């Protein structure tokens, strides 16, 4: 949006988006669901129009790259480069797991939540693969040209649509993306506030953060806390030259690390504690996931790893203090 209204600073759009989505969050789960559904429908419709236009250009003018180029690269395949960028791209997939935080507000129970998570992951993955492949075929720029001008990489998707398909489609997509990103942030705020609420119930946060409002059922105090932290980080990212990339990488590192622990928990709970005989599902699959995620984390940016290490130390200290307090309470009883 800043590119369309350069007179308005980027941080102003960021702050406005955070405040508007926070208001929707405070209105309760039903308001969140309605807003999210409307935005998803609009975004899918816009993406469909873009893909139809791009496919029409491919059919009439042909591709600028080889049909296999999006998968194998131009001039050679680099596995290290792919793994290094996954930690940033992974941020686009983090939202599907947020569905789990709405288990208490779901009418279909835990099974419906699990199915929704898998459905969102598969659909989002297929759409990402399709649009990336089609636009890559229309990209006139070579990897060498992009490497020489890194600033052009951030707008490449829109530039290709503007120059190869239609300028108005690029504008429409940019507006849809801006609105969609804001409401994706809304889901992040909603999920984060419910994580804080759950941690407060488990005495990992002050108990006050576990309270929900009687009218909407939303954790108002937890939402306010998450909003305040998000607002500070988002405005900083809008100011800093590479703030968005660093923030995306850091968030991805945190999420990927959490998924590693989640898969380790699957092995510990089902294979060790419950002695499950389903070795493929409860041992092989999570072990493979741990290896893949571990490789991605190792090849993440240095700054993201430093920030992640800092948060790990803070978490370890907090966990140690809480464990010590719990043992003292147990002795006192």
UniProtKB/TrEMBL annotation:
Tell me if Membrane is a UniProt keyword of this record.
yes
Query: Could you name the Gene Ontology cellular component terms for this entry?
Result: membrane
**What GO terms describe the biological role, i.e. biological process, of this protein?**
transmembrane transport
Q: Where in the cell is it found?
A: Membrane
Q: What is its main location?
A: membrane
User: What range(s) does the Amino acid permease/ SLC12A domain occupy?
Assistant: 5-316
Q: Does the keyword Flavoprotein apply?
A: no
Matching InterPro entries: AA-permease/SLC12A_dom, APC_superfamily
Among Gene3D superfamilies, the record links this protein to: Amino acid/polyamine transporter I
Keywords, A to Z? Membrane, Transmembrane, Transmembrane helix
What Pfam families has UniProt attached to this entry?
AA_permease
Q: How does it sit in the membrane?
A: Multi-pass membrane protein
Membrane-spanning residues where? 6-28, 35-59, 71-96, 116-135, 168-197, 218-239, 251-272, 279-299, 305-324
Q: What is this protein called?
A: Amino acid permease
């Amino acid at each position: 949006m800043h590119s369309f209204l350069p007179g308005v600073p980027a941080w102003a759009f960021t702050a406005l988006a955070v405040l508007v989505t926070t208001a929707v969050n405070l209105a309760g789960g039903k308001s969140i669901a309605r807003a999210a559904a409307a935005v998803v429908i609009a975004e899918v419709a816009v993406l469909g129009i873009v893909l139809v236009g791009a496919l029409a250009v491919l059919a009439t003018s042909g591709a600028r790259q080889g049909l296999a180029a999006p998968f194998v690269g131009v001039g050679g395949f680099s596995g290290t480069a792919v793994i290094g960028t996954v930690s940033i791209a992974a941020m686009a997939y983090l939202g599907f797991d947020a569905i789990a935080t709405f288990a208490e507000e779901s009418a279909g129970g835990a099974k419906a939540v699990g199915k929704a998570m898998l459905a969102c992951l598969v659909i989002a993955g297929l759409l990402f693969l399709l649009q990336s492949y089609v636009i890559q075929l229309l990209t006139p720029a070579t990897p060498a040209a992009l490497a020489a001008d890194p600033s052009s990489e951030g707008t490449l998707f829109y530039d290709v649509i503007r120059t190869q398909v239609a300028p108005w489609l690029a504008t429409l997509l940019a507006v849809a993306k801006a609105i969609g990103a804001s409401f994706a942030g809304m889901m992040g705020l909603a999920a984060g506030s419910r994580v804080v609420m759950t941690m407060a119930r488990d005495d990992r946060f002050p108990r006050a953060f576990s309270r929900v409002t009687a009218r909407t059922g939303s954790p108002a105090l937890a939402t306010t806390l998450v909003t305040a932290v998000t607002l500070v980080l988002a405005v900083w990212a809008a100011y800093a030259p590479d703030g968005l990339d660093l923030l995306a990488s850091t968030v991805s590192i945190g999420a990927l690390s959490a998924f590693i622990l989640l898969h380790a928990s699957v092995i510990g709970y089902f294979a060790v504690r419950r002695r499950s005989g389903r070795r493929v599902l409860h041992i092989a699959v999570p072990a493979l996931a741990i290896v893949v995620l571990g490789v991605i984390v190792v090849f993440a940016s240095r700054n993201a790893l430093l920030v992640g290490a800092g948060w790990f130390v803070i978490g370890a200290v907090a966990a140690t203090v809480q464990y010590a307090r719990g043992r003292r309470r147990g002795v006192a009883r």
